[in-house]
Each structure stands twice: as C-alpha cells, then as structure tokens.
Amino acid sequence: MATPTPRVRLPAKAKKGEVIEIKTLISHDMEMGTRKDAEGKTIPRKIIKQFACTFNGKEVFKSDWQPGISANPYMAFFAKVNESGTFEFSWVDDDGSVYKTTSKIEVA
Amino acid sequence: MQQGARPAGATRRRVLAVGALGGIVAALAPRLAVAKPEDVAAAIKKLYGDKKISDGKVTLEMPQIAENGNVVPMTVSVESPMSDADHVKAVHVFAEGNPLPTVATFYFTAASGKAVCSTRIRMATTQNIVAVAETSKGELFTGKTEVKVTIGGCGG
Predict the structure, then answer these.
(1) pTM for the full predicted model
(2) CB contact under 8 A, B103 and A69
C-alpha cells in the first residue's frame, strides 16, 4: 500500500478564545485482522492505533483506535485557540511508523 | 477409547490428528464470534470497576439505519463546561455486536473547547453502540444508541 497521506482542514484565522473545528483524514486500509484472503489465510491486523493532536506542544486531543474504525479513518474534533501557533497531528501505525503533518493558525 | 468405536480404516494416528484439528478449530472460534452485551459490560467494568455510571449527558449521533456497515458515521458529544477544573477526560465507545467490543477511546483536554468528535466506524450487524464518558472530577456518564445495519462490515 502506498504511504498513508494525511489531510487536515482547519480555518486559517480565528478570534482569540474561539472554538474551531478540525477535520482530519488519512488514507489507510485499517486491516482489521479478521478478514481472509483468497486462499483462506487470515490477513494480519494492520491499523493505525493512535491519533494525537497538539497545539504549540500542548495536547489538545488524542484517540486510541481499535479495528472497529473504518478504513481511511476520518476524525473531526474541536480546539479552543487563544494564540497563534501550530497544530501538530500524528498517526501511529501498528508497525511503528508515525505519519505526521502540521497546520498553522493565525489568531487575532 | 474402545477399539470397536473407531470408524473403519481409522488408525490411532489419524484419530489423534482429527482430534487435534478439532481443538484448533475450537480455539479459533471464540475469536471470530461476535461480542455480546455482556462483553461490553465486562469491558466497562474492567475500566471503572463498580463505580456509579449515570445515564445522560452523553449523546451518540448515528444514522438509524446504516446501509453499509463498513462506514457508519458517528458523532459523540458530552455536555460539559470544558474548563480546566471540569472537563471531559475520556470517552470510550463500545459495540455490542462487533467481533471486538471496544471501538475507540477519545481523550479530551480543556484545550478541546467542546467535548464533541466525529469519526466513522465499522459495524458487523444491527446493534447498540455504547459510550462512557469520564470527567476530570471522576464522574461517569453513559449513553447509547441502536443502529440497524443492512450489510455488515467486519469481513469474516
């Protein structure tokens, strides 16, 4: 499978103290470990098990995922912003890889 | 085992092999079986023991009927002031009819602003989805919703 591509959408600007919505999406099969291939062999589990978002280094939102999360996991949540800064997003795969991306926001 | 009880042509080795295979099948079967409401109750008990869990404050927004069990949108929201002193710390989501009773856990902070999040989950069959929220004060709240699933989404 191609390297998972993370995508994040959030407003570029916000007022101080505003609660903004952040939408994230990453391409990933989220192989659940119960499916079988054509030969009847079980396909091993390979999912993203953790997602985290920090703002200027401080934790905002975190989530642990089980195989019950759909392929190409979508995660939307909120954040209260009091200052300009950078959101950092990370997805941790079962195989230990970490996929990362960042987004800046300007707070007036 | 009595000699006469064996099927014709069955050697001791073959009988043992069949027995061993049966054992493997039996060992695998529980893994593929779906969770039951009791499994969800057990999973919640493992997390929080016998602590009191009140109904309410937790809302699960999901379609009443999901045609495709592979992708069922879900929005969890918890009523909370989300201040430093009083905010929702964690929300655990369970499925009563999936192969695994646990679906996801969401961890909020005061910086989240709102204890609301959305994702998409897999559902094997028509079942209840249960959410349990834990606040920073240690209170526990729960909410659940039933979703009818036309085509299950858990492989098999």
Answers:
(1) 0.83
(2) yes
